Amino acid sequence: MRLAVPRRRPTTLLTAFLATLTLLAASAVATAERAAALDPFTGYLLAHFTGESSNGEQIHLAHSTDGLSWTDLNNGAPVLVSTVGTRGVRDPALVRSPSGDRYWIIATDLRIASGTSWGDASGRGSTSLVVWESSNLVDWSAPRLVNVAGTIPGAGNAWAPEAIWNPGTNDYVVYWATNANRDGVTKHRIYYSRTSDFRTFTPAQVYIDRPASRSQGIIDTQIVEVPSSAGGYRYYRASAEGQITIEGSNSVLGSWTTLGDLSHMGISNGTGGGTVVEGPMWMPFNNGTSWGLWLDQYATGRGYLPLRSSNLGSTRNFQTVSGYSLGATKKRHGSILQLTAAEQSRVLSRWGGSTTAISRIQSYNVQDRYVRHANYTARVDADVTPAQDAQWRVVPGLAGSGTVSFRSVNFPDHYLRHYGYVLRLERNDGSSTFAADAAFTPVAGLASSSWTSYRSYNVPDRYLRHSSYALRIDPITDAGGRADATFRVVR
């Protein structure tokens, strides 16, 4: 008995043909996106923190054209400030999507400068990561918390997060160190989760766990992809576990081969002494034939030390590098992103050498007082601590020509804006309402023409003034009001 084979109708053939065209078009778009992401790299961006100072545990950026000499961006001030969790971040990682159309910064939610002890931080600390997201590398979302370690029994923390695109699962593998009890042993191990959007994560799983006989914990793992498989592997990872261990693999979630450590160079993570380092940070040089491994010399506070290798298959191929410069600020555990010319132009335009100078805004009639923010409200005070609370960048107004806006130094995505006629420090949400509320027209000082007064852009019959030391916008009708509404920008 023969089975009848149905004939295809013309509409079926047309549907199939159109479906094929759609798939080809989608493939062409995907190929174009990948090609755009592979534009030649012309520079480097380093995200880092600087230490346990008032603004040190925030996101700082530095730029380099050769990967060895670094210039601090934003005049060394933080570029992003965490307002969630512990309100501090360490160990930031820069992540770019495969198509180059999306970026993330993920970081440890930790602020030692607030008085937190290391014991509390590792045993009873935050189990969340802080995440920022951007479509252009310069305009970032508000920070958000993701509790990646919350499903790990007895988890004490979530430290030093990293992420890498995994073609095997078509998503990102996010990995970090958590201190928890496993098989009767409490120590740091590397856990991982998968995500496609850095919002929804799979439950945490163990990624690296050394034998129980090794009591030393493991932290600060970072992976670099080597598409040419130089040295025999596509991926290499470096970890701090008493030594700086180097491993190789051809799959992010596959088996890894230990290649050695850096003890032969007198470098360790504490076991064996010598130059004691942490936070290994990979950096592919833009020549495509060599790789840098930066090591944070935290024990001596000397900042990063670079090594270089053209063949990662053996730790014996690493060499120390001389003639490097880290810039004006200390660089602590971070990550480096290679930049295309377009990305570099955007970054430098936003935070490069043309950055507006840092200023203070002095009151005319109480000249020992300066405009400052305190708990996101604005006022004039003397002897401000920390000093950055009274430091501003007077930038071109968000609302347009002829106006100025006051951008915070230590909350660089926040501006002074009026709300209900009261001045507040708020994050720029990109709306036209915010831009208008945060814009002021400078005019000759109402109390002295050699000083300056600031008229509200969208309520032009009101001026910026202090009243009982709090800042607001009001109509000015008398001599006292004119004095309250007069200021001077000083360096």
From TrEMBL:
Matching SUPFAM superfamilies: AbfB domain, Arabinanase/levansucrase/invertase
Keyword list, A-Z: Carbohydrate metabolism, Glycosidase, Hydrolase, Polysaccharide degradation, Signal, Xylan degradation
GO molecular function, one term: alpha-L-arabinofuranosidase activity
Ranges of residues in domain Alpha-L-arabinofuranosidase B arabinose-binding: 360-489
Any Pfam family the entry gives: AbfB
InterPro entries noted in UniProt: AbfB_ABD, AbfB_ABD_sf, GH43_arabinanases, Glyco_hydro_beta-prop_sf
CDD domains the UniProt entry points to: beta-trefoil_ABD_ABFB, GH43_Bt3655-like
GO BP annotations listed: L-arabinose metabolic process; xylan catabolic process
Signal peptide start and end residues: 1-25
Matching PANTHER family: ARABINAN ENDO-1,5-ALPHA-L-ARABINOSIDASE, ARABINAN ENDO-1,5-ALPHA-L-ARABINOSIDASE A-RELATED
Protein name: Endo-1,4-beta-xylanase
